[in-house]
Write a structure and sequence with these properties.
By secondary structure, the chain is an alpha+beta fold. Helix content is 55%, strand content 13%. It has helices at 3-17, 53-86, 116-127, 134-148, 150-169, and strands at residues 28-31, 35-41, 89-96, 99-102. Strands 1-2-3-4 form a four-stranded mixed sheet. Strand 3 and strand 4 (99-102) form a beta hairpin.
Length: 175
């Protein structure tokens, strides 16, 4: 099954499991080999309208925290079912007025081989206090590249999906 089909299946399954009124609009689903990330949009609270920016931000933070606390047990139950069914961990988050807040995320160790010049970059980040360890420095670099190369990475993912479609439409050579 292709990645977009799996995401559609997951979006449908999670949408069917969510209690009415939790989210405003469709769920965002992202997945990789280890994790399913579920993000739902919250309706901004009425108390965030027509007030100062400081009060608006505080009202949004309060609404996110209230949602997190009030839905915790049910989210754990849904995640447990999904983890059993789909064999991946589930991470939860919400978005409200363009801000994304993740409640849980999975940190997965990734082994890599780096040459000395690449290790020196990580060591410089550690020495400068940007990161606590080489592992943190590498994660920082990946986040930075992801932020600044978003368009390129999107184009690359689209190209990979096109390759999957072409492969699927090709002749069956397994027989």
């Amino acid at each position: 099954m292709k990645n977009e089909e799996v995401e559609a299946q997951l979006r449908g399954w999670f949408s069917g499991r969510m209690p009415e009124g939790w989210f405003d609009g469709p769920l965002e689903i992202a997945l990789d080999r280890e994790e399913i990330t579920v993000v739902g949009a919250l309706r901004p609270p009425a108390s965030a309208e027509g007030v100062s920016e400081v009060e608006r931000v505080a009202a949004l933070e309060g609404a996110v925290q209230r949602f997190r606390e009030e839905t915790r047990e049910r989210r754990i139950e849904i995640a447990s079912e999904a983890e059993h069914r789909f064999r991946r961990k589930v991470s939860w988050g919400v978005s409200v007025e363009g801000e994304r807040v993740m409640f849980t995320t999975l940190s997965v160790p990734v082994m890599t081989r780096l040459r000395q010049s690449e290790r020196r970059v990580l060591d410089t980040l550690v020495a400068a206090g940007v990161a606590r360890s080489r592992s943190d420095a590498l994660a920082w670099c990946v986040r930075l590249v992801g932020r600044h190369a978003d368009t390129w990475l999107t184009d690359l993912r689209d190209a990979l999906q096109h390759v999957d479609r072409v492969r699927a439409a090709g002749p069956d050579v397994t027989s």
